[in-house]
Amino acid sequence: MRNEPGRLPRRAFLGLSAGALATGTAGCIGSASDDNDGDEYVAVASFFTFYDFARQIAQETSMTVENLIPAGLHGHGWDPDPSITRDIVDADAFVNVGPEFQPWADRALETVRDDGAGTRSINVREGIELIDLDETVDEEEAIQGGKDPHFWLDPELAKGAVDNIVEGLSAVAPEHEGTFGDNAADIKQRLDDLDADWEGIFERAARDNVFLAAHNAFGYVADRYDVNIQPLITNLAAADDVRTSDMQFAQDMIAEHDIRYIGAAIFEPNGWARQLVDETDAEAYYPVTPYAGVTEKWSREEWSYFDIARSINMPTFEIVLGSTAPEETTLEEEWRNFE
């Protein structure tokens, strides 16, 4: 980003004290790496999936994309320290999931506006039609009046997020618009390929009822591929309380449909999954994730949305759908009843 009057370079900003920020010094900040020879840009992202899309879109440009969510954490129910807001204020763009999904991100955007920072907000769900969420969702966590925000689990809808990211990054760095568009076209083709592979998995399924000891994050998968996916937690909160009636419903469903294997979310408490394996005829649980975060290992190996889909979610769904025996999938033994 080119130098603008009254703006500080990124490195100078990072050296500011919290007290300086509190007194309003940050109001003149919004550029990134202005002290470098060429135009360089920084975008930060509030959620792994869209960090991953953005970093792929920005390949072979002077745009750097940073993931704000530390490895091992779920991107939804997180409350970061003030340094994250400083990173957002100092960035050229903030890739986020839109209002009401991550309260901390909403607060950071308020700070950006209050400080007059130049950070561009890129709302990845802009213009995407969301499906209704269960009526059981708590009023305080409702998105757009009770919609399900997890649209990126539908590869077709995920392409809309890719387009939104391209538009936002192009507004920040118009000289790279062509490269952004070319990279996005490749991502969207990979999403089409992923969609076709998901179709194949559900077409080969031996059963059409899946139980997940997880929060309500897979509604778009159920909607797109016409399968009944029942979550243990019907609210959006990944660590919400599980009622006795919820566990009873789970036990009844497992018995009624003769479910042998269930899914359990990687970044959520799995004690409920262990309890169901102990107290029902279910033999084991296997990992699922709504692409909300990464493990330390995935981070080291630079796993993408596509890597996680093919290495974690797809093998588990093949197991829970009864189309593939656990030992015939690519899942390693560590994922059977993982801790």
Automatic annotation (TrEMBL):
GO molecular function: metal ion binding
One GO BP: metal ion transport
Keywords attached to this entry: Signal, Transport
InterPro entries: Bact_metal-bind_prot9, TAT_signal, ZnuA-like
Keyword Transport recorded: yes
Family the UniProt entry places it in: Belongs to the bacterial solute-binding protein 9 family.
Identification of the protein by name: Metal ABC transporter substrate-binding protein
Organism from which the protein derives: Natronomonas aquatica
